[in-house]
Write a structure and sequence with these properties.
The protein is α+β, with helices and mostly antiparallel strands. The protein has nine helices and five strands; from the N terminus they run αααααααββαβαββ. The chain has two domains: about 90 residues, 5' to 3' exonuclease, C-terminal subdomain (DNA polymerase, domain 1); about 130 residues, Cytidine Deaminase, domain 2.
Length: about 240
């Protein structure tokens, strides 16, 4: 006896896999794409209905991505294997986005830095302070996570920021961190940390080019980040 409604039991024109093969993935609703990952439903509920419930419960794909395995399993019909499949799909999507940037991109503006790190920071529920290490041509060497903390609270020490820069022989770096609240406006602590690290970089001859704070897109300026250099804190 089946414990759930299988996708293959649906009418052919309602089967997500058949519709994807015929019309392409972009023709499917998000809940249908999720249903393909889930494969089966549970006790009278199709995988599509479970996908719709997940979207309703979490509100956005970003929130769904951030959910832990335990949180996903709180939805009826989502067991451990299905939760793992969902987490795996989101991780693949993030890695694909990083791959599309190509090797050693030039990160010489706040917008290129934000574009490069946007997807990897989207799922963070707490602040992650990162150092983007660059060579003399402003090409990426690597990104280092310096520290992570509670929401809107983070501790940064110059030693940790510049240790990696020295070992990588970086000519300069860009500071980056996310605001889980969504508002990228810098706090007084953000400004003070930036000024302290600029001074430390001057002593070590490693230029701090900018401090980019990632948040969510604001209606006023259409940006989901701010640059402390553009705001005048590097003068």
């Amino acid at each position: 006896m089946s414990h759930g409604i299988r996708i293959k039991d649906l009418p052919k024109n309602e089967r997500p896999r058949e519709r994807l093969a015929e019309k392409g993935a972009d023709a499917l609703r998000t809940s249908e794409l999720i249903a393909i990952l889930l494969r089966t439903g549970l006790r009278g509920r199709s995988a599509i209905e479970i996908g719709e419930e997940l979207l309703h419960k979490f509100g956005t794909l970003t929130a769904l991505e951030r959910a832990s395995l335990e949180q996903l399993q709180e939805t009826k019909g989502i067991g451990r294997d299905k939760a793992i499949a969902l987490k795996s799909s989101f991780t693949l999507a993030r890695r694909m986005a990083a791959e599309l940037h190509g090797d050693a991109p030039v990160l010489d503006t706040p917008s290129t830095v934000a574009d490069y790190l946007r997807e990897s920071n989207r799922s963070y529920e707490v602040e992650h302070f990162q150092s983007v290490l660059l060579n003399a041509r402003r090409k990426l060497i690597r990104v280092e996570v310096i520290s992570q903390g509670l929401v809107d609270t983070i501790l940064v020490h110059p030693r940790e920021v510049f240790k990696g820069a020295i070992s990588a022989n970086a000519s300069s770096l860009v500071l980056v961190h996310n605001h889980p609240s969504g508002d990228p406006t810098p706090s007084q602590a953000d400004i003070q940390v930036t000024r302290d690290l600029i001074r430390a970089g001057q002593l070590l001859r490693i230029e701090v080019l900018d401090h980019v704070i990632l948040g969510r897109r604001a209606e006023g300026n259409g940006k989901d980040y701010v640059s402390l250099r553009e705001l005048g804190y590097f003068g």
